[in-house]
Amino acid sequence: MSIGKPKTLTTPSLKRHALSTSNVDVFELVSSPPTGSKFSSNVVALVNGMNPTEVFKYVANFGIRHVIQAKGQGRIERVKKAQEIITAGAEGLSDFPGKLLLSPPTFHSNFSFHSSDEKESVVEQAVSTVTAHSGGRRFADDVRTIADEFFTNVIYNAYHGPNSRISRTVTTKLPKDKAGELHVMGSENELMIAVFDLFGTLEIEALIQKIQKSFFLGISRSMSYSSGGAGIGCRLVLDRSQRYWVIVFPGVFTAFFSIMPFGPDARDADMDHKDVHFLKLTR
């Protein structure tokens, strides 16, 4: 059973939402879809208080690529933002897609890098950018973890390929015309850490399976049973994110986005229920 354009179906487990557009369907996921169901990649699923383990069960098994929590503030805005990004296509997202995810920012810094030797400097600059703002110090550890994982993923996985087993202790450099970019953006109530590479080698399906496996086995056992790589690092980032986006244009670019609450109300934010998005662009 195919769910979404060009054939739209509503079942007892799915209710088509009024926010659906001609290009992007929005469904309320009431219960598990029928066995064998597969969602179109441009479907947004609204869920009610679903934890990450449950979310990735649906992402991995039913092909859902966009999951938004129905509870919490800004639900309609988040749905519309997802629709905007999904319909923008490769041309519309060729210039740093983060500008669409968090606007208008109150601060935005980006740091280019070519060599693994730059990691400590780039990561600490990202941390300093955040801690320079009111209330930012309590985010230092999370920013450091996310920035470290993002940097490492570009230098070792994106450049050398997702299945590379190159040692993380080896110094490696990116081509001069393919610098990685780490972005730090903040608004009144959200903080975004993002990374952008010009290789587009990430395999979304493999990444989803690795993240789901980490929920089933736990992070430590997942590292023991596989080569790890981006899947484990992305799980660490996901744990620290309230909204999580991965956008891949094969052979052109890959972008990861970790968005978390920021500002005076951040302590009260629900971090147990997350929005996740995986978008693969085509020419």
Tell me about this structure.
- With 283 residues, the protein is α/β, with parallel strands linked by helices.
- It folds into 2 domains: 1-71, no CATH class; 95-280, Histidine kinase-like ATPase, C-terminal domain (Heat Shock Protein 90), CATH 3.30.565.10.
- Helix content is 35%, strand content 22%.
- The protein contains 8 helices and 12 strands.
- The strands form 2 sheets. It has a 10-stranded mixed β-sheet with strand order 2-3-5-6-12-10-11-9-8-7, sandwiched between helices. A two-stranded parallel sheet has the order 1-4.
- Strand 5 (44-47), helix 1 and strand 6 form a beta-alpha-beta unit.
- Helix 1 (52-62) crosses helix 6 (204-217), helix 4 packs antiparallel against helix 5 and helix 6 (204-217) crosses helix 7.
- It starts with a strand and ends with a strand.
- The model is unreliable at 6-10 and 224-228 (pLDDT under 50).
